[in-house]
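Here's what a typical entry looks like (IS4 family transposase):
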Amino acid sequence: MVVRAKDNLPCIVKLTPGKASDVKFIHNLDLPAGSIVVMDKAYRNYNQYNQWNNEQVTWVTRLHGRSVFTLVENNPLEIKQHLAGVKEDWTVELGHSQDKNRFKARMIVFFDAVNKQELRFITNNFELDALTIAEIYRQRWQIELLFKRIKQNFQLHFFLGDNENAIQIQLWSTLIADLLIKIIKDKAARLQKAKRWSMANLAGLIRLHLATYIDLLHFLINPDKALLNYKNPHPQIQLSFFPSQ
């Protein structure tokens, strides 16, 4: 899954069997020049990195524990960057000395004061400052929040069928429902400044009022006014056998 950073919504989804390797997923990405892609360190693939370099795509990831690199030079580091947690800004060569795919990259050594750990980020971008690179990688956590949001608000604890088709239908239905609710939530937030709806509250509200004929967006912006103007479009659904006296 690829999540678009600006709205925390999936833009590319591929459902595969559980035993399939996630690493192969990046080969299916067709990114336009100027894109920034952020990924976990498990997606280490020097051939793919080189391809993105040629396509003018910026990539940011963490250094894999088994990666081999050689320090080329120290890049200038401002004092304010150092005070913010950036310990080193290096130009390195990734890969073994005999590796034909060996290439230069930028490595940022950052100390996370909250979790008390040192992180090493690698990227092909030499223009942005080191702290910005660290912040870009931090945005990768949005994909974990997306999975958490889906698990909390939709029924995925069990599946309605045990064959591949049934499972895919339930997963796609969940992703579509999440997309629609997120669009409504963001639109309501842009149109009013008072009440902010959480994803859980909004999903629960829609679940309880699926058969209520009311303008959802107007209700989210001003619930009291929307309910006062509510008129049941079908006041009499059940037919009478005998005319009332």
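The radius of gyration is 25 Å.

More examples are in the samples folder.
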